[in-house]
Write a structure and sequence with these properties.
Layout (H helix, E strand, L loop, with lengths): L6 H18 L3 H17 L2 H18 L2 H17 L3 H18 L9 H10 L3 H18 L5 H17 L2 H11 L4 H9 L1
Helix pairs in contact: 1-2, 2-3, 3-4, 4-5, 4-6, 6-7, 6-8, 7-8, 7-9
Length: 193
């Protein structure tokens, strides 16, 4: 329903999830419902409604201990904050995502969240920063065999197109060379701390 932007099917699915919550007493279904509706509202440009639904999903996720979803909703909501020009809030959300992921697995640096950081930097016209993070992310995706969800990847791809158009080739080559050795932690320290 989400991929097809089928609001009628999503409404039916939402009602089924509410019924499952009532039947089982498990809030996970309401968390999934809030997440799905947040995604649909975000795709339709209803950013305030999407933000409220991400908040609902985050609250439920935290209360039931679904830390993966809790982290994911930080990632998702950061795009809304960026679109609304709330860069301080976006930085908190992105940092929150990485903090949660690090807590869940201290030995792994999470490259996927770099998508949000690229978007964050690009929308603030920091094209050198966006390029640095994007080139590093692409390298890490290849090394770790990560294939981003197309909907998640779209803002990063848009930022990369902008970098290609607006950033001089000499800068891009230098940034690309530097990105060959950077890690997620380097980028977080540079752009979020």
């Amino acid at each position: 329903a989400l991929r097809d932007r089928d609001t009628i099917a999503l409404q039916d699915y939402s009602e089924q999830l509410a019924g499952l919550t009532e039947k089982t007493g498990q809030d996970i279904w309401m968390m999934i419902r809030a997440h799905m509706n947040a995604e649909m509202n975000r795709m339709q440009g209803n950013l305030d409604e999407a933000a409220a639904l991400y908040d609902e999903s985050m609250a439920i996720a935290k209360s039931i201990g679904s830390m993966g979803m809790y982290a994911d909703e930080h990632f998702n909501k950061s795009f809304i904050a960026v679109e609304q020009g709330e860069f301080e809030e976006a930085a908190k959300l992105i940092k929150g995502y990485f903090d949660i992921m690090k807590e869940r697995n201290p030995d792994r640096e999470d490259a996927y969240g770099l998508i949000a950081l690229v978007n964050f930097l690009s929308k603030q016209d920091d094209l050198q920063g966006a390029a640095t993070v994007a080139y590093t992310a692409r390298r890490l995706f290849e090394e770790e065999d990560i294939v981003p969800d197309p909907a998640d990847e779209a803002p990063m791809a848009a930022a990369e197109l902008r970098v290609d158009k607006e950033l001089a080739l000499k800068f891009r080559d230098s940034i690309l060379e530097n990105a060959k050795t950077l890690k997620v932690s380097n980028l977080l320290e540079q752009y979020l701390d």
